[in-house]
Amino acid sequence: MSATVSPLREPLVQGNKSYHDITEDLISPTERAPGKEWLAIFGISAVLAGFMVFCILWTIWHGIGTWDLNRTIGWGWDITNFVWWIGIGHAGTLISAILLLFRQKWRTGVNRAAEAMTIFAVMCAGLYPLIHMGRIWLAIFIFPYPNTRGSLWPNFNSPLLWDVFAISTYFTVSILFWYTGLVPDFATMRDRATGIRKRIYSFLCFGWTGSAKHWQRWEALSLVLAGLATPLVLSVHTIVSFDFATSVIPGWHTTIFPPYFVAGAVFSGFAMVQTLMLITRRLLSLQNYITIGHIESMNKVILVTGTVVGVAYLTELFIAWYSGYIYEQFAFFNRAVGPYYWSYFGMMFCNVVSPQLFWSRRLRRNIWVTFFMSIFINIGMWFERFVIIATTLARDYLPSSWSYYVPTWVEIGIFVGSLGFFGVLYLLFTRVAPVVAVAEIKSILKSSGDQYLAPNTKHHDEVMDDYQEAVTQGKVYDTHHAHLESH
Amino acid sequence: MTKNREVIFGLYDDETDLMDAIKVANKDHLDIYDVYTPFPVHGLDPLLGLEESRLHIAGFIYGAIGTLTAFLGMTWIFTQDWPIIFGGKPYWSVPAFIPITFELTVLFSAIGMVVTFYTVCGLGPGVQNPILHDRITDDKFCIAFDTHSVSSINAESFLKATGATEISNKII
Known about the structure:
The complex is a heterodimer of chains A (487) and B (172).
Chain A: H1 19-31, H2 36-62, H3 77-88, H4 90-101, H5 107-132, H6 159-192, H7 195-204, H8 212-245, H9 257-283, H10 292-323, H11 326-337, H12 341-353, H13 361-364, H14 367-394, H15 409-432, H16 438-448, H17 450-472, H18 479-486
Helix pairs in contact in A: 1-16, 2-15, 3-5, 3-9, 3-14, 4-5, 4-8, 4-9, 5-6, 5-9, 5-15, 6-7, 6-8, 8-9, 9-10, 9-14, 10-11, 10-12, 11-12, 11-14, 12-14
Chain B: E1 6-12, H1 15-27, E2 32-36, H2 44-48, H3 55-81, H4 94-121, E3 141-146, H5 152-161, E4 166-171
Antiparallel strand pairs in B: 1-3, 1-4, 2-3
Helix pairs in contact in B: 3-4
């Protein structure tokens, strides 16, 4: 068996698991009463979410005047948070769709939770434009429907309307993709359950039987949905970047925005996946399914996308200087050394400098380093959006209207509360569905389980150790030759 | 409406046992009613003679409907129903229609395919299909025979000979 597998592949399922062990390990957490840690985190999240609801109602009741936005700075924390959450929502589909097309088997360990994270992050993101409208009860006006006002239609030439379509499509497709993946696992839960639980999961699993023809169609559907979701995920943040790029504000009106935003979105999304997975694997004891190898793979994506983002920052600076356009030059000068210099510094440090630690294999495989790095990146990417939005607006064409913006307690409350709201949704999800895709893990067991790879696994670590040693001694190391020799 | 069907089925512990058994069944010309597995087993489709799914063709058609709906809809609205000049641009400003056209293509295709998938599989909210055994969604691989096309005795001796660990029958 193991002969067909590359000797450099690490096992993705550890602990000598059988198919039944996988079912037990992944589904039993939903069948137990929640632990103390879960209850504590859920309690805190619920309180924060409640505070968010209060702050939103406060905003709707008293109006947007409860925020510190002014004539100069019309977009503040609200749109910053919107872009931040949407960016986080990009990792799930990237993992489930793009990595499926690239046949990356490690995605099976994290795709379910990442997709759930995507859906919840998009829900958080969607709140902000709605509240920002002011009169939220008129939110239906953004959709084109025949109405008694003419019919008066929305402006299809506006990037803000493209956003409505992009995000609602993304949300819908993500839910369809996620739920279709969940159906076979709900069937597994149904067949283990009794009483009311059995009736609930019978309903949720849509009568799944596991018939060969159904599996065949299920795989065909997953593949085509992945093919559709791949351009979709790239389009969503591209369109979000159009909100800025199609305007005539110096610092926003740049053609680099779409790829730069997409890379940043993947970067922040993976950081949030790391934050969540490190907590989840500990709370639910999933160390055999979300291995150090998975964490390292995600850290590699973080390193690549973080570096892409860094190149984009430097390109922006260069083009601002090279354009010879004084307003553009001023916008970037102001970002770096203006009144909000601290946010620019935070952005550069968290997003560009700190991920460079991940060039070291040892640090990529260190759980605590990964955890702190993921928090750093979450903060850094929030700063990035704040830099782009608020600091750019604070210094516009007319010095007489220059302004400074500090959020009020209401704005802070809505943001901090949205973290709680996200936490509530994610924690509930860990109670009702398996956080790791059960059927998909079973399908990779024979090619990636440690019992099938055992001789090679040892070899992998040996090779890497020998390689590290050779590098530190300044020698050239031939991995392929070493592999042949050791047999 | 559905007439009662008695099936006799055997459970195997591993997908390789299952595949070997199906090969034997094919050689003996035993007509398999269905095969149930806990996860998609690759290589099963040619053994069972399953044709490739045509879902992707359906997906293309739904996508094309989405493309036309979005593009023609915006065209009609901005050239016929209520033409408005935005920023001195032409009424029919095609580049600005591309993002929404793309999004609706994806949306129609995804929703259409998912609905088609559940419909052709006979699955859906609240559907109760007969379950042969509780472990089929866990770790057992099942071959089922319809007793109308394969006699119980033949099926049972086949299942025993090919290493089924549990044999049973059920009216579905």
